[in-house]
Amino acid sequence: MANIEDVAKLANVSIATVSRVLNNKGKYSEKTKIKVLKAIEELNYKPSSQAKHLAKVKYGFKIGVLISSRIKNILEKKRNEYGEMDFYSTVLKGIYDGANENKAEIILMTFEEFINKKKECDGILVLGSDKIPDYILNCNIHKVLVDNYIVGKKINAIISNGFDGAYYVVDKMIKRNYKRIIHIHGPLEFYGFRRRFEGYELAMKQNNLLPITYEVAETQESINYIIDLILAKKPEVVFTSNDPIAIMVLNALKSKNVKVPENVQIIGFDDIVFSASTEPSLSTVKVFKYEMGNVALERVIELINGKNLHPYVTSLFTEFIERKSTKGV
Amino acid sequence: MANIEDVAKLANVSIATVSRVLNNKGKYSEKTKIKVLKAIEELNYKPSSQAKHLAKVKYGFKIGVLISSRIKNILEKKRNEYGEMDFYSTVLKGIYDGANENKAEIILMTFEEFINKKKECDGILVLGSDKIPDYILNCNIHKVLVDNYIVGKKINAIISNGFDGAYYVVDKMIKRNYKRIIHIHGPLEFYGFRRRFEGYELAMKQNNLLPITYEVAETQESINYIIDLILAKKPEVVFTSNDPIAIMVLNALKSKNVKVPENVQIIGFDDIVFSASTEPSLSTVKVFKYEMGNVALERVIELINGKNLHPYVTSLFTEFIERKSTKGV
DNA sequence: TTGTACGCGTTATCAA
DNA sequence: TTGATAACGCGTACAA
Known about the structure:
Chains A, B: InterPro entries: HTH_LacI, LacI/GalR-like_sensor, Lambda_DNA-bd_dom_sf, Peripla_BP_I. Two copies of one chain form a homodimer. With about 325 residues, chain A is of the alpha/beta class. Chain A has helices spanning about 5-10, 15-25, 30-45, 50-55, 70-75, 85-100, 110-115, 135, 160-175, 190-205, 220-230, 245-255, 290-305, and strands at about 60-65, 105-110, 125, 140-145, 155-160, 180-185, 210-215, 235-240, 265-270, 285, 310-315, 320. Chain A folds into three domains: about 5-55, lambda repressor-like DNA-binding domains (434 Repressor (Amino-terminal Domain), Orthogonal Bundle), CATH 1.10.260; about 60-160 and about 290-315, Rossmann fold; about 160-285, Response regulator (Rossmann fold, 3-Layer(aba) Sandwich). In chain A, the strands form two sheets. A six-stranded parallel sheet of chain A has the order 2-1-3-4-5-11. The longest helix of chain A is centred in the first third of the chain and has 18 residues, at about 85-100. The interface between A and B is large, with 40 and 40 residues. β11 (about 310-315) of chain A pairs antiparallel with β11 (about 310-315) of chain B, so a sheet runs across the interface.
């Protein structure tokens, strides 16, 4: 591969001039431009994105991290029932660590604040699955959605692979010879819940088992309401859309004097902080929150440097964390 | 962020020694090791993956690209009915171009040949969705699957986002006020077909339309067999799992004297070479083959450099290419 | 308008 | 066993 020096030599100019033409910065004559472009053409020269980054990192990047007012409240400790504070602060830690390594400055702001700070940003990360205003979605800044994916919009996104995690853990339970595995899920219009549902469904069907599913709201009442229906199915394992639901199921079973994991095993999804300290502690599928932030930051820097510009969704694999709400092997 | 020089200064050694400890290469005393590790700890030092790459690129990388014997045959022009030769050669072009930019040497080999060439590779790309032998899946080399995703195995993979593409194009047709949109698909045990199916299904349901689907084998007979059933539904649009099926539908409609796009519109998926030259030319959803190869190559280089090691699936967005088998706006 | 020289972080080589 | 240094490819401040 030719480098900038080869181009400079062939065009009979300095590398600085090549760079100027390439990036359309500074002054250069039309004649020089043509010489340089010809040399680039001839050598089939393509700047190395890695070296580009290394050279640019010196001057730093400015990355806006956009959150809804709701998430801002959560981060300010106003509420944390569902472990959301932990979730977002862990993702943010991944973002900040990545920023640190790339000499990037993070500007944390709400959706509204972005309107005035737009010009300062080389790129933005939009955090969380709250509704994103159109002026953000349509602005022409490099952007990456974090823990959110908008179907049909072709926006770069980082999410966790709920389909794969659900399939993996359900298939694992089936291999342990459990057959009556029930899935309790939140509303399927949410992409995340739906993908976990589909993973569960596929694992069951591929093993010739009948999927049994219940939709609930994420409230204790909603769970209590159907707990008898669930128990009537004599489930060996209850797999839920997320940890908060799993914990509510656990509560409901306790109040019915059903022993966990002896009589019913429970598996959640997310691995929120509380899951380690329930009684018994909750087996769950871990979402890699830190990595999610880290990968998102790296992705937006890539985009700023003009690398891998074609948009795509990044789905991080999960991991089964086995605690005491399942029986183990 | 601390750099290697800061660490060297604090530990009172040279940067070379820091590097030696870090990478466990060359000789150094236990005492030195402890000093260095302490300094690294204290400064929270993390080597920059970018700079690492730049330093490494000098010595080059060796990337194995693994293909099945079947794909090898296709590439050697033994057959090309389904545009597969074009598909794989375009992906390969993306791989080679990426390799070029990263000073990587590509070693193209079959699954069997890999057994003996394993030691030469810094990383491997496994191309295509033919069954991959376990000795490849289980070998401890950095690997990336290209146009393949194995559920539940947590292996890095690059695929095209069939779900999103299908949703996008079906939703677009619905917005053009067509309601009778039929989906003809291949066997749903293939992940790719299933995702396209799910995208179709979601777009229909979200618009309160009833999904109508037919499963077929990828043969002309299989299509001819159901063409009357399909026509009985008076479809305005027929959306298929891929271009080969779309072309067969086109043939079947022709032999029934059904005008395309006047009476029935057809949309394929993939954008294989032949799609531009059918009569009428085929509207389709383009899969970004070149980018798929390119991103895959970049990903494996990343892994070799120890960057973003947590595994994930990369799903490239698609694009609707409108030709003459649909009516346009 | 153009060129020189430096810096980014790492590692191999060679010398000590 | 350790240190000094060049090299990887690019962008830009500064000098010319």
